[in-house]
Amino acid sequence: MTLPGVGTDAPIRVRTPSALDLFMFSASAWLLHRIHYDTPFTTEHDGHPGLLIHGPLQGVYLVQTAESWLGNAARLSTITYRHLAPAYLGDSLECGGTVTGADADGIDLELWARKPDGTVTTSGTARFAQK
Amino acid sequence: MGVITEEARHWADREYPHFEMQVTTTDIARFAHATGETNPIHFDKDAAVAAGYADVVAPTLFTYVVRMHASALVPPDQLEPDGSPTADVPPLPTRRAMAGETAVVLGERVVAGDVIGVEKRLANMYEKEGRSGPLVFVEMEFTFTNQRGELVARENFTRIYR
Predict the structure, then answer these.
(1) Was domain B6-161 assigned CATH 3.10.129.10?
(2) CB–CB of B82 and A34 under 8 A?
(3) Which of residues 87-146 of B touch A (CB under 8 A)?
(4) What interface predicted TM-score (ipTM) does this complex get?
(5) B83: helix, coil or strand?
């Protein structure tokens, strides 16, 4: 399969993790930080409006946005991402991507997760190698 | 300026114990369900073998699970009130932590039965003056290898303290 060319957009995937999803992610990774499952601690002690959606879970969402689009045609070789704004339980994250570069060996992508109001919570760049 | 003391630099630059995780089909299924994966190669050995893998294959960023266990699988009295491992809290006056940049380079895939080892080291530590005071950047490098000594992933993760 030919990989998509420069300027092509991945289909947007909207991810709205539930409290159960957040807990499962914490449990599967043995990530004990209370801001992802303990609401009273998170709001009263840390002053957040609600439980935080893990940064690494958003990193996974970025990877999945590209993987579910590219299928078996390519494999992730590198990804770099940053968290720009907090995402809270209840937020819907529109996850998307654009091809920014292409050569014989693979493609470069810009990937992001953003709230419906346009606030980008996580953004990154990735390289997928043609298989 | 100058919140990174000799003590903090020495703390960050210490030797970190080697950690190994024997990866089971259960570990892989837990992470796959938690992240919404539905591809049977993450749950069913026959499907994984049909796709060319030796066994059930882990999702791409599974090494995160290995490095979290490496730092957080400690007795409860070695955890801070917020749940973070005490050993990960630097001796800095700037204690509020934020995740900064994550950079991952992928190598061999992880399959059930692999023993994934992780080596952790301080890659960089520096400070900048932020709008509301000093910011300290602590960049750790994690190198993941399998039981054959093949590189599985290298991750550079920067935490920002303010």
Answers:
(1) yes
(2) yes
(3) 98-106
(4) 0.96
(5) coil
CATH class label, A13-17+52-130 = alpha beta
Per residue of chain B (162 residues), give pLDDT as tens: 578 888 888 888 888 899 999 999 999 999 999 999 999 999 999 999 999 999 999 999 999 999 999 999 999 999 999 999 998 888 888 767 888 899 999 999 999 999 999 999 999 999 998 888 888 999 999 999 999 999 999 999 999 988
Interface of A with B (CB under 8 A): 15, 21, 24-25, 27-35, 38, 41, 45-46, 55-57, 59-61, 63-64, 67, 75-83
The Cα–Cα gap between A124 and A103 comes to 20
Please return the burial class of B128, using the count of CB atoms within 10 Å of its CB with bins 0-12, 13-18 and 19+: exposed
Report chain B residues whose CB lies below 8 A from the CB of A55: 99, 102
Do B34 and A25 make contact, defined as CB atoms within 8 angstroms? yes
Q: What is the dihedral of CA A47, A49, A52, A58, to 10 degrees?
A: -130
Give this prediction's pTM.
Answer: 0.95
